[in-house]
Design goal:
This protein has about 210 residues and is α/β, with parallel strands linked by helices. The chain is about 40% helix and about 20% strand.
């Protein structure tokens, strides 16, 4: 079983993760190759399970119907990445950077007004919201700078799930932790938070695969 091996002096233990279908092993610098090989073999079943799950994720391709914030769009191939709301089409050109830039622009246009509504309702003002294409987090909060980051992949879920992330991050402005008090605050604003969150974490976000 092939894998990428990263030695990191800050690591105290060996860990395995699957990123974009690749097996990545990170270990302390003194770890031997034989130990890593045995570690990978011992976790073979876990690795196979996650590789199968990754392969099952839908790939974005021309002709498919892609839902963005509950609205269907037909994917087309062209020279640029663009979205036509009237025709309900999305054009892709095989360039991942262009794709991510398109998602960022769309998130700024579609999600920011929703963020401002929650911001005002929860008693905040002037917070900065930014967007990025993140691998493993839906959002993050920097209370010290009044900044909240939102994953553009939220474009692929429904509005209630978007709300769950916005409420979660805004509550961090009061509680910069995941304490009981924090979750009590979240539930005051969104009583069905756990039900929505459970659905969100099981979402299968379509993958964009760059050409070339």
């Amino acid at each position: 079983m092939e894998y990428q091996w990263i030695k990191n002096k800050r690591y105290k233990n060996v860990s395995i993760r699957i990123k974009e279908g690749q097996i990545i092993v990170t270990s302390p610098t003194q770890t031997s190759k034989d130990f890593v090989d045995a570690f990978v073999q011992d976790h073979r079943q876990w690795i196979q399970k996650h590789l199968v799950a990754y392969d099952a994720i839908p790939r974005i391709h021309p002709g498919m119907t892609l839902f963005l914030l509950e609205r269907p769009y037909t994917v087309m191939e062209g020279n640029v990445c663009a979205i036509d709301s009237e025709e309900e089409t999305i054009t892709i050109n095989g360039n991942e950077k262009h794709w991510q830039a398109l998602l960022k622009a769309l998130a700024q246009k579609q999600i920011t007004p929703r963020f401002r509504q929650w911001e005002q309702a929860m008693g905040y003002t002037g917070l900065m919201v930014r967007y990025g294409y993140y691998a493993s987090k839906w959002g993050s909060c920097r209370k010290d700078t009044g900044s909240i980051a939102i994953n553009t992949k939220l474009l692929f879920v429904d509005w209630e799930e978007v709300d769950s992330v916005l409420v979660h991050e805004l509550c961090h402005m009061k509680y910069p932790n995941h304490s009981q008090a924090f979750y009590q605050e979240v539930l005051e604003w969104m009583p069905n938070y756990w039900k929505v969150h459970k659905h969100l974490i099981h979402r299968s976000i379509p993958i964009f695969e760059q050409k070339g």
